[in-house]
Amino acid sequence: MKVLLLTGLGALFFSYYWDDNFDPAGLQGARVLLTGASAGIGEELAYLYARLGAHLVLTAHTEALLQKVVGNCRKLGAPKVFFIAADMASPEVPERLVRFALDKLGGLDYLVLNHLGATPSGTRSRSVQATRWLLQVNFLSYVQLTSLALPSLTDSKGSLVVVSSLLGHVPTSFSSPYSAAKFALDGFFGSLRRELDVQDVNVAITMCVLGLRDRASTAEGVRGVTRAKAAPGPKAALAVIRGGATRAPGVFYPWHFHLLCLLRGWLPHPRAWFIRQELNVTAAAAA
Predict the structure, then answer these.
(1) Alpha carbons 177 and 172: distance in angstroms, whole number
(2) What's the CA angle centered on 208, arms 26 and 253, to 5 degrees?
(3) Residues 6+ apart with CB under 8 A from 33
(4) Could you tell me the superkingdom of the organism this chain comes from (predicted)?
(5) What pLDDT, on the 0 to 100 scale, is given for residue 21?
(6) DSSP 223-259
(7) Could you tell me the CA-to-CA distances from 117 to 141, 151, 203 in Å, in that order?
(8) What is the CATH number of domain 24-117+126-285?
(9) Strands 55-60 and 81-85
(10) For 60, phi and psi rounded to 5 degrees?
(11) 149, containing H or E segment
(12) Is-catalytic flag, 178?
């Protein structure tokens, strides 16, 4: 019975995501500000937007990596590509970044928030200093960028695309500050979506729940701690772009993450069992 139920739910979600009316031509000439664009899914997002003819402002912490991505985007056919190196741990950066994007592009159609600050696994990550830094990078900077870009997105009837994590819905061990920041994103943007609806503001918000990032730094940070495999960057990036372009309220990649989120409150004990299968508890506790 359980197998049949899960199979039926899987078929339902598959049909839902397949029929999304995605039109790639609709992104030609779109003005996109993309954060966290130097590696992983952010880099793949930049390349896909470039292939689709979007005008881009890219930002990340490391200028040398950004320059490489910008060069590749130009080769892929992006009509306009600009970049600005930015450290989201600094509260002054978001205003400078949005001002730069508006100056270069004349407005925004998409704000894609993808940057990520990670801390070491284990008990060290629960220090007040580490938590404060993580909340600034992974939450407060998202709020700042959204508030600053919202007037332009309102004018263009644009979209906010927020790349989050399963840990913003299903908490796990040894990730307390990181999970707190991701839960905060879900609460903030869920509430903002309702506020915009009540005020008849035509700005879409797409929350993207992704698995482990497919990038070397992420894999290294959790080596020996988790048994989970990283999601393929190009496929995850395409799911994010499709969701934003179709103004979907949510994107889950892999798709079964949606089931995990729905089952979270129903099956607490199997959830703990599932986490133990994905986590090397001894290694995480020793970190």
Answers:
(1) 11
(2) 100
(3) 57, 59, 97, 98, 101, 105, 108, 110, 111, 112, 149
(4) Eukaryota
(5) 87
(6) TTTB-PPPPPHHHHHHHHHHHHHTT-SEEEESTHHHH
(7) 11, 27, 27
(8) 3.40.50.720
(9) parallel
(10) -165, 180
(11) helix 141-156
(12) yes
pLDDT score for 279: 52
Q: For 91-241, where are the E strands, in sequence order?
A: 110-113, 159-165, 204-210
Q: Please say if the pLDDT value at position 15 is more than 60.
A: no
Q: Of these residues, 47, 110, 142, 178, which one is catalytic? A: 178
- Domain residue spans in the chain? 24-117+126-285
Q: Are 54 and 101 in contact (CB under 8 A)?
A: no
Predicted pLDDT at 273: 56
Q: Measured between alpha carbons, how far is residue 123 from residues 39, 83, 120, 126, 243 in Å?
A: 27, 36, 9, 6, 36
Scan for tokens 């508030």, then name that residue.
147
As given in the structure block, the two tokens for residue 66 are 């950004």
Give me the phi and psi of 111, to 5 degrees please. -115, 115
Element (H, E) at 105: helix 93-105
**Structure tokens that stand for 263 in this block:** 């089952």
How long is the chain?
Answer: 287
